[in-house]
Amino acid sequence: MRNINNVGWGLVILVIQVATIGLCSWKIQAESSSSDVMKASNAATLLGGGEINEKLRTFQTAINDADKEKASLADEPNGFQPRIHKAHLWHALEGLDRYPNYFDRWKSRIKSREQSEDHSVSHNKDSDDEEKEIDDLLKLEHVLRDTADAVRRERKRIAQQRTTWMQKIPNFLQEHPQFRKFWDAALYGEDWGKWCNGILHPKVQELFFTTNTTTGAIQLKTCSDATVAQVLSGAVRVEWNVSLLTELLDEECSDVYSIPILSDAFCHELIQLVRSLRLFFAQDTTIEQPRFFSLSQLGITWLDDFLFRVLLYPISIHLFDNIHLDSYHSFVAGYAAQPNCVTPRQFLVPHTDDSEVTLNLCLGEKDFEGGLLEFGPMRGERTKTKLQTDTVQPRIGYGLLHVGRLMHQVTPITSGDRFAYIVWTRSWTDTRAKQCPCCWLNHRKETATCICGPQWN
Ligand SMILES: O=C(O)CCC(=O)C(=O)O
Ligand SMILES: [Fe+2]
């Protein structure tokens, strides 16, 4: 384990790869090229941003086997299939307002195909084309409406699921009154002393908090006037200075940092809570069972708020090249050699997370064996293809911070139970906004086959 001081901050900065033709640069490029064309030619003949955007498409319908079935269901004389080809949907969404001639691309193609297919039939081609154009617009509208409906249905399902779970909590607390404090709203508004009492790891306590010599109140060092409620709600932002963080963070392996967060005792209490909740819910056959519990979704939001606002948000700014996180999702994952409903995993395959930055906080239990974390290369980097054997032994109460793009896996657990409190965070302004998500997922470096690439624009 290396102290972060030794590696220097230059090395810890994650270089986010920006796609050669990222969305933003693509827009700027398209606009400036079109204005050049506008100047050089007769503006009246150029519609929708200039001829560079109105060039004839040479799109070939190339669909894989899985899509063939769907395709056969679609009544497609002209190849415009926004449900199947995301490029069609993308261009219609991005292009319609800026390129009013969008559908003419397809119209011209249909026209030439029809002409070459049937020279003998003589009917009014212009009106046929117009019908197809309208047909395409309707098709697009249907796809958009169906997608919006699916999103609405999913949101409703999740909201109902949460309501059902929340309605069960009073019964749970009647059976398990010892867990009432987790739902105690007073924790939000009270002074920081409560945080130091039993919840936090002593090292965090010592470095993050200070005692006001006149009032005796415990305060957060870097914004001493802020109350717990102000910080947890995001009304007051926490900013950690580099020297404080260097004292607290260790680099466990390349691009993975550890930080002490929770006390052993509190980790143990959390495990008891999760175990009891799972067993309580499992008795109820009338409700949909969550695979993993998210404490926030069950009404305990203060812990996630604390992890996000006091640690993840301010630390990511320093650690991961000025990433500004804006949302989070957390869950507690349980592992055992013989998986069961409380600990459904035995190991975890190599993967990357659906997150910008991940916090992986080990809760224990004590003495579990196996369940090591192995970290590999960054997704999108071609150079290393095999998962490296950078192994990290999770420590109770310690969190590991890494970007979601870093490959990782969990080795099989051989004895005992292992629980990890995982927080996935997202940011609208970082990797996902700068790089085409599809290229990112497919390790694609060249843009030739990307719908954001030049041949499409
Ligand atoms: O259990 C762990 O330590 C890792 C879990 C994880 O990577 C995940 O759920 O995405
Ligand atoms: Fe993961």
TrEMBL record:
Keywords: Dioxygenase, Iron, Membrane, Metal-binding, Oxidoreductase, Transmembrane, Transmembrane helix, Vitamin C. Its cofactor is L-ascorbate. InterPro entries: Oxoglu/Fe-dep_dioxygenase_dom, Pro_4_hyd_alph. The keyword Nucleus does not apply. The chain crosses the membrane at residues 7-28. PROSITE patterns: FE2OG_OXY. Residues 326-427 form the Fe2OG dioxygenase domain. One of its GO terms (molecular function) is oxidoreductase activity, acting on paired donors, with incorporation or reduction of molecular oxygen. This is Fe2OG dioxygenase domain-containing protein. It comes from Fistulifera solaris (Oleaginous diatom).
